[in-house]
Amino acid sequence: MGARHEGIFPTFFLSGFECSTFRWKDGRRRDLVAETHHREHALEDYQLLHDLGIAVAREGIPWPLVDQGGGRYDFSPIEPMLEAMRRTRIRPVWDLFHYGYPDDADPFDDAFAARFADYCRACARHVSQHLDGPAWFTPINEITFFSFAGGEWGWVAPYGTTREGRERLRVALCKAAIAGVRALREVLPQARMVHVDPLIQVVAPPDRPDQQEAAAHETFVDAFLAWDILCGKEHPELGGAPEILDIVGANNYSFGQMEYREHGPHKALAPGSPGIEPLCTLLQRVWERYRRPMLIGETSGMGKGRPEWLRDVMNESMAAVNQGMDLHGICLFPGVDMPDWHTGQWLHNGICDLVPCEGGLSRVPHAPYVAELRRWQKELNRVTELDEDPFSDPVDLQDVVDAARRLRPAPDRDWA
Length: 416
Description:
Layout lengths: L12 E4 L15 H4 L6 H10 L4 E5 L2 H4 E3 L2 E2 L5 H10 L2 E5 L16 H19 L5 E3 L4 H9 L11 H25 L4 E7 L2 E3 L8 H9 L4 H6 L11 H4 L1 E6 L4 E3 L7 E2 L10 H12 L3 E6 L6 H17 L4 E6 L19 E6 L2 E6 L1 H13 L17 H11 L9
Parallel strand pairs: 1-2, 1-13, 2-5, 5-6, 6-7, 7-9, 8-10, 9-12, 12-13
Antiparallel strand pairs: 3-4, 10-11, 14-15
Helix pairs in contact: 2-4, 5-7, 6-7, 11-12, 12-13, 12-14
GO molecular function: hydrolase activity, hydrolyzing O-glycosyl compounds
Keywords: Hydrolase
Organism: Ramlibacter pinisoli
């Protein structure tokens, strides 16, 4: 029997709930928790994860709704979630800035980082008074993607439309994230941080060899810049360090493999397109660069492809483990469906679909997806339902390493 390798989280599989609170390009504030009825169904949503053997969920504290200005905070928007967590013994990775900030805050103002740090302290104090057990936080979700959406594409506030705006926003967000980490640890010295950003692969169009350099820059430089700042590799004057970066959360979606476009979002590559790289390769790029504990921070397929997507992600992840990556978990995100930001149509990417019914939205588990999860829980010797105390027996990652060695999957470019 090999030496025990204790995991960071009590279960290898995690989940989470879409919690964006951005101000959309039409000027109105969105609250995706309200749009999915997650507050009204918090206990049901958490009971679902409990019954699936998932003890950790990414959950948001909505900064624009909680921050009342002048150092005053109203945490009532998360009370249903806190109660559900207490009753199910599931614990959160708290997202403190999930694509949304208060109306009277300016990311480019020198006071922005200090205001965010004060909010982080208040969050840490509040949740520690209401939940026991370990504390995990994602101070700012997907800094790189948010910098594009808010700094260059004009989708969300602050509505920037230039590459220079994107770069300024990313540095400002990194500065705030570093201040937030330090503030959280003032209150909770043992708190762990999960900094998530997308895995990407960008290739030039076949008829545009002149764009190969730009595509390579996005793949091998731009995709890593936020993490580089957080760990102190770039802009060291901002105070980044390896312990600030802490846990690297790599988000994996099919649309992360793209064909370069000079203006606007890149075009997602169709399955089987030239230039697609195996997920294992993308994970190894991150692992080799930072050598920090890793988590697949979000991943999901769409529609009927969800079980096949999970199968592919697991095989690729096991291949990466066989290459030495220290993988601590995989987050099946979201736990319940979410709407497309642009069209409002349901994406059918959750563990549960949302089906309109009298009085709201009913939760309907996607049975083939659940069956594939169950199969992998057994392969990895993981629990399929939480016991009374999920934290009494942390994940032995040696079970995951042993399963990877036994299965020996080969990386595969065809993730269709």
